[in-house]
TrEMBL record:
Residues 13-129 form the LD-carboxypeptidase N-terminal domain. InterPro entries: Carboxypeptidase_A_C_sf (IPR027461), Class_I_gatase-like (IPR029062), LdcA_N (IPR027478), Peptidase_S66_N (IPR040449), Peptidase_S66C (IPR040921), S66_fam (IPR003507). GO terms for biological process: proteolysis. Residues 179-292 form the LD-carboxypeptidase C-terminal domain. Keywords: Carboxypeptidase, Hydrolase, Protease, Serine protease. This is LD-carboxypeptidase. Signal peptide: none annotated. SUPFAM superfamilies: Class I glutamine amidotransferase-like, LD-carboxypeptidase A C-terminal domain-like. PANTHER family: MURAMOYLTETRAPEPTIDE CARBOXYPEPTIDASE, MUREIN TETRAPEPTIDE CARBOXYPEPTIDASE.
Length: 304
């Protein structure tokens, strides 16, 4: 996998909105969030538009991505927010141009679809990271900021990834596993199945997080991945935040922990849970496509 060139002070970063429209009052603060790090923000057309639940029509949002990757002056591309819409762009994105102009892509949630497609089609590392119009605009904690800055600026990513001290990593199944990191948002991973951009989990470390889904829906989606042989094919599993994934009728529901015990544990894959990443803060920034070693018993995640 190719790691995009780390950024340096003064580099230009292209903001795009490949999914939902942003709240306009957040735009100035979202720009300041990266410019405070010494970077210069260039806005794509999609950043100020609305088309129903999209930030502009499909072709415009796709053109934004294509132009940012094609522009030699732009050194990285950052999704302002998630929502829904990236899947509608995949047949309009110029992946050949992305492969020829490798640069960092940052974002998460619906951006999972772009991570999967770019990792697999372009052999390029991307970054599962907090977004300017979702978290960064209002300021973030030191842990989250330091993790993001490391992925943006550091020349060498090798070493362990640590949770904040207040959040403990646990293991479900003991063991060690190594592989390229893939995955992201569970519902988006499942929506890739059966398409030209279906997630490839073969001998990879599968990362999963989710937000605001009832436990029975988490059960259904994990079962789909199992029945599609995606979890069977991976070498290990990292579970992040399952934010606000609570049952409306708790007395008639399994918990997320019980679902994991019943569906994932019997597969015998090394599983680490409680990793601080996803739709909550503090949050790690993860390099998707990078080679990762997990040692579940010792609760270690290492970039190798």
């Amino acid at each position: 996998m190719i790691r995009p060139t780390p950024l340096k002070n003064g580099d230009k970063v292209g903001y795009v909105a490949p999914a939902g429209p942003i709240i306009k009052d957040r735009l100035e603060s979202a720009i300041n969030a990266l410019e405070c790090l010494g970077l210069k923000v260039i806005l794509g057309k999609s950043c100020t538009l609305e088309h129903g639940y999209f930030a502009g029509e499909d072709i415009l949002r796709a053109d934004d991505i294509n132009e940012m990757f094609d522009n030699k002056d732009i050194k990285a591309v950052y999704a302002l927010r998630g929502g829904y819409g990236c899947a509608r762009l995949l047949d309009k994105i110029n992946f050949t141009a992305i492969k020829e102009n490798p640069k960092a892509l940052f974002g998460y949630s619906d951006i999972t679809m772009l991570h999967i497609a770019i990792n697999q089609r372009c052999n390029l590392i991307t970054y599962h990271a907090p977004m300017p119009a979702t978290e960064l605009y209002k300021g973030i904690d030191k842990f989250t900021l330091n993790s993001l800055k490391k992925m943006i600026f550091a020349n060498d990513l090798k070493g362990n990834l640590y949770n904040p001290r207040s959040k403990k990593i646990k293991f479900i199944v003991e063991g060690k596993a190594c592989g390229k990191l893939t995955g992201g948002n569970l519902s988006i991973i499942c929506s890739s199945l059966g398409t030209d951009n279906e997630i490839d989990t073969n001998n990879k470390i599968l990362f999963i997080e989710e937000i605001a889904e009832e436990p029975y829906k988490i059960d259904r989606m994990l079962l789909q991945l199992i029945q599609a042989k995606k979890i069977n094919a991976c070498s290990g599993i990292i579970l992040g935040y399952f934010s606000n994934c609570k049952a409306s009728k708790p007395q008639q529901s399994l918990t997320i922990s019980e679902i994991i015990e019943e569906l994932l544990k019997p597969l015998g894959k090394p599983i680490i849970t409680g990793v601080a990443c996803g739709h909550s803060l503090p949050s790690l920034t993860l390099p998707m496509g990078a080679e990762v070693l997990i040692d579940s018993k010792n609760k270690i995640i290492k970039l190798v």
